[in-house]
Amino acid sequence: MRIEQFEPADASILHADLDSFYASVEQRDHPHLRGRPVLVGGGVVLAASYEAKAVGVRSPMPGHEARALCPTAVTMPPRFDAYMEASKAVFNVFRDVTPLVEGISVDEAFLDVSGLRKISGTPVEIAERLRERVRIDVGLPITVGVARSKFLAKVASAVGKPDGLLHVEAGRELDFLHPLPVRRLWGVGAKTEARLYDAGISTVGQIAELGESRMCGLLGRGTGAHLYALSMARDPRRVETGRRRRSIGAQRALGRRIKSESDIEATLLAIVDRLGARLRKADRLTRTVVLRLRFQDFDAVTRSRSLPDPTDSTETILAVARGLLDDAMPIVRERGCTLIGLSLTNLADHGAVQLTLPFDGDDHAAALDVAVDSLRGKFGRDAVTRGALINRHHGDDAPMLPD
């Protein structure tokens, strides 16, 4: 049986991406900051305005390094509630344009506008109106890429930033794509980029010229085939609506100062508590816990462990997370830790999994989780907390799409 790949006849997929989202909200809400370099976040830069990016500031750069690069920058504390409200307003605009919206994060989404030509105009005309509406209705700049595939639309929006619109015409995809640096391809991080440079490959076009078999020999079968397909503009994925997350996670920057083991563990406790509550609120279960650590030299490692049965129990997740941290603690003592993150993956809907029967009648962990979630929902997340977290602040949760 032959499987047909999805490829629209014209460039009708939009990738809409807000520009320096957090910093743009601050400049919108504080007019005296417009046109000035703005940093959001003190210890670690969560976002930087384009005025700050122009002198080399990036996120997640340590705050002191960012201020050394840009001494005139104004540092603003994050206001996640304001960012979430702005995100909701922008997504309302997206859904008013087309019902086919796939959110990627709180500040970007794919939109499929195929079939709207007779009632709304060409995809480029639709993109122009979308940008204008976001600017007028929400007060924020947004860049839109227009192409035949999700991959190319996302690349186009990245190239078109800031506050731009870039249309990759159907049939001219390779003309646009091949001169670009290899880092524009999904899956090319610093290490892969370095390996490609060592092999004399610096542009997407050179990957296409090398061919799939030689790319597989250079980077391995999976990565090589993936990057070659992208270099030839092959991306058959449709815009998907209503898709649920495959994982949820959170991370906290610890700063450059040496942190004690108790501080690191307390931060992990706070992350687990919040992820457990998110998991139960979304009526999901997890089977795999992934710990991520970043060290003083900016290198990072991940450790993961899978459970025999899926769970939404904070106690179970915490036990696994603590075990992973204990295993990694010798490296932390040697190299220092500047960031800790935790992800819950292999998610499943609660009703789709047969749970293990609670044979132990004295196990009240599930009821305790529900009671604590209810109290925090009614009186605030700090209404009930662990003794180890009293008088500690572990950062606010960044805005995110629904789980």
**Helical content band:** 40-55%
Low-confidence stretches: 1-6
How many helices? The count is 15
Radius of gyration: 23 Å
Biggest sheet features? 5 strands, mixed
Beta strand % = 15-25%
Element pattern in H and E: EHEEHHEHEEHHEHEHHHHHEHEEHEEH
Question: Structural class of the helix and strand makeup?
Answer: alpha+beta
Q: Globular, elongated, flat, extended or rod-shaped: what is the shape?
A: globular
Strands in their spatial order, largest beta sheet: 5-6-1-7-8
What's the pLDDT, averaged over the residues? Answer: 86
User: What is the strand tally?
Assistant: 13
Termini gap: 36 Å
What would you note in describing this structure?
- The protein has helices at residues 21-29, 50-53, 63-69, 80-97, 117-120, 123-138, 150-160, 173-177, 190-198, 204-210, 212-219, 221-231, 261-281, 314-335, 365-379; strands at 13-18, 38-40, 47-48, 74-76, 101-105, 108-112, 142-147, 165-167, 248-253, 284-295, 300-311, 337-345, 348-349.
- α4 packs antiparallel against α6 (123-138), α10 (204-210) crosses α12 and α13 (261-281) packs antiparallel against α14.
- Residues 1-6 have low confidence and may be disordered.
- The chain is built from 15 helices and 13 strands.
- The longest helix has 22 residues, at 314-335.
- A hairpin with a 6-residue loop joins β2 (38-40) and β3.
- With 403 residues, it is an alpha+beta fold.
- The relative contact order is 0.10.
- The two termini are 36 Å apart.
- The protein has a five-stranded mixed β-sheet with strand order 5-6-1-7-8. Strands 9, 10, 11, 12 and 13 form a five-stranded antiparallel β-sheet that branches.
